[in-house]
Amino acid sequence: MSNHGAGSVATAQMRSCRTFALPSTVIPHVAARNIIGIDLGTTYSLVARMDGDRAIVLPNRLGETQTPSAVSITAQGEILVGAPARARAVTHPDATFRNFKRDMGTDRVFAAFGLSFRAEELSAMVLKQLAADAEEALGGAIDEAVVTVPAYFGELQRRATRDACEIAELYVERIINEPTAAALAYGLDRRDRESRIAILDLGGGTFDVSVLEIIEGVIEIQGTAGDARLGGEDFLEALVDHVAKRVLGTHGFDPRVEPATRARLLETCEQAKRRLSTAKQVDLRVPTTGEETVVVTVTRDEVERLWQPTLQKLHAPIRRALRDACVLPRAIDEVVLVGGATRMPAVQQLANELFGRTPLTNISPDEAVAHGAAIQVGLKSGDPAPEDMVATDIAPFSIGVSTVENRGRRTLQGVFSPILERGTVLPASRVERFVTAAENQTQIKILVYQGEHSSCEDNTLLGEYELEGIHKGAAGEENIDVRFSYDLNGLLEVDMTVVSTAVTKTLVVERSGGKMTQPQLADARDSLQRLKFHPRDALPNTTALARAESAFVELRGAQREALGHAMRSFRLALEEQRPTEIEHARRQLMALLGDFSL
To answer: Where are the domains of the chain?
Structure first.
């Protein structure tokens, strides 16, 4: 709380503190409803559902299970989502957007060809594509979805995810943490065992750690921590910088300067990073100027030394999660790795060293979260397969208010007074009582913060509210109860009550950084309807050409000539609009790309 009007507002004197468990909502089973689970990832997104006693990932329009979380805009203002957009990142880097999940809940704007979007709007386009693909796979409309978020997403990022779903007109009642989803996937076949598990979820843009215990089908999250801006992309950027500096040192050219060349370097290093998971060394063809390339050889040992600073950043969240769960590494029975970046041997070795055991590899790190989202769908729908499973979750951050602390003649402003601490089992509600700090005070500005620092300026402002109707009186004479209610989705509601009048007000978040207003959401929904999306029926052809164009800029000599010939044949078939010839030419083109390992 802060100063307003008549003087300083409140002290952090607590009169009472009560905790309530909120009852879970029971959703009756409705037959023939299409409810899907969505893993909305930084790099790739997946859709899954329950099929009998197991979770399956649904294929997209191209027959692939992973849809790139990418959006590209053409010069004609047409929107491409998924695989064709990702392929255009090499040929049209300034008009292609990726990794925008990291900017959820911020004011950052992505712009090209006169169009501009927030991260929520780009995520809504991906969600809309995923839902359309799922409808095609299931043969019916999607009624509802369960969407996953990183456990270390804060209030603003979770609200932004909910906003993206609203913009996409996708009904989402339940948001689930990614490690919790992975725990559901892991625990589905292990309900008869008791074990304490550490889940390390390293995706493209985020890192989460959750420590949990499974007892007779009950999954209890005991500690969680993470970094919402640490993931596989950071390892990639380190490799890009390293290779670019080597080229700069030997050839005097920095491939990071020109956007198109940098985009090609990113794609080359991404392929090298994946290959180094199994190979000891790889050769990279690094673009310089024009048609020239430089061959750079990197070894696994070299890049692992390069990645040490990034690997070290994984330690702190792991230690915090263990500390919050009150367990030592040796007390962990099993370590589960989730997320594509955990395929890197360096990450697996780090987990082995920290916990003294080999991580499990019996579940797909790419699909575990999507499987868990599908199992959560089964729990919501009353599916018999997971019906005896229960998953609890906890608050990832402490949330509190700004207060004033009076010490004699001195006043300390901006003191963070937590009301609901991190690690609180959800859903929960907690109330604390504060008092006025100035004489004849009639109103209070209540500032709600999220974070772990003692000073509010080091935490994240979530919202504010002007509470009026306070009777004039001496300092400390009026009591104000502030209640925080945290639901299963990790979303917050704040109620404030003037005790003497029993008048209660609910917090309306006015304009905190990154929060979309209701008019903005309505405009975004309308804009999404007006955008010209690339025809879905043409996606296989567009994707094939985009991938071919991306490969064409990398190749030289006979391979480039062969690819160019196949592309011209494909374009000619498209112009003549003969379905059989189009299918044949596309298959030939994709086969050729497969031969080039691109």
So the answer is: 10-21+395-506, 35-193+360-381, 232-309, 555-595
* Averaged pLDDT score across all residues of the chain: 87
Residue 437: name the closest of 394, 473, 468 by CA.
Answer: 473
Round the CA-based radius of gyration of the chain to a whole number and report it.
Answer: 26
What is the structure's pLDDT at 290? 61
Please tell me the distance from the alpha carbon of residue 404 to that of residue 434, in angstroms, as a whole number: 10
Give catalytic status of residue 178 as yes or no. Answer: yes
Determine the average pLDDT of the residues in 16-32.
Answer: 36
How many Å apart are CA 161 and CA 380, to the nearest integer? 20
Task: Pick the closest to residue 434 from 485, 486, 377, 480 (CA basis).
Answer: 480
Catalytic residue, candidates 155, 178, 208, 213? 178
- Which of 39, 393, 478, 481 is flagged as catalytic? 39
Give just the sign of the alpha carbon dihedral 544, 547, 553, 559.
negative
What are the tens digits of pLDDT across the range 567-595? 898 888 888 887 888 888 888 888 888 87
Query: Domain 35-193+360-381 falls in which CATH fold?
Result: Nucleotidyltransferase; domain 5 (3.30.420)
Average pLDDT over residues 305-310: 96
**In what order do the strands lie in the sheet containing 70-73?**
96-98, 70-73, 78-81, 532-533
List the beta bridge partners of residue 503. Answer: 498
CA distances from 407 to 1, 37, 245, 457, 477 (A): 17, 53, 56, 20, 18
**What is the mean predicted confidence (pLDDT) over 394-412?**
87
Confidence of residue 162 (pLDDT cuts 50, 70, 90): very high
Give 487 or 129, the one with higher predicted confidence.
129
| SS3 category, 468 | strand
Q: What is the mean pLDDT of residues 84-100?
A: 94
Residue 56 vs residues 102, 187, 201, 291: alpha-carbon distances, Å: 27, 16, 20, 44
**Is pLDDT of 72 > 70?**
yes
Residue 208 is among the residues annotated as catalytic for this protein: no
CATH H-level superfamily of 232-309: ATPase, substrate binding domain, subdomain 4 (3.90.640.10)
- 561-564 long-range contacts (CB < 8 A, ≥24 apart) are 562/592, 563/592, 563/593, 563/596
pLDDT tens for each residue of 510-549: 445 567 888 888 999 999 999 988 887 788 889 999 988 8
Which CATH architecture is the domain 10-21+395-506 placed in? Answer: Sandwich (2.60)
Mean pLDDT of 113-127: 97
201 is catalytic: yes
- The single residue of 121, 201, 220, 227 carrying the catalytic annotation is 201
Take residue 193 and report the two structure tokens written for it: 């065992």
Per the annotation, the verdict on 53 as an active-site residue is no
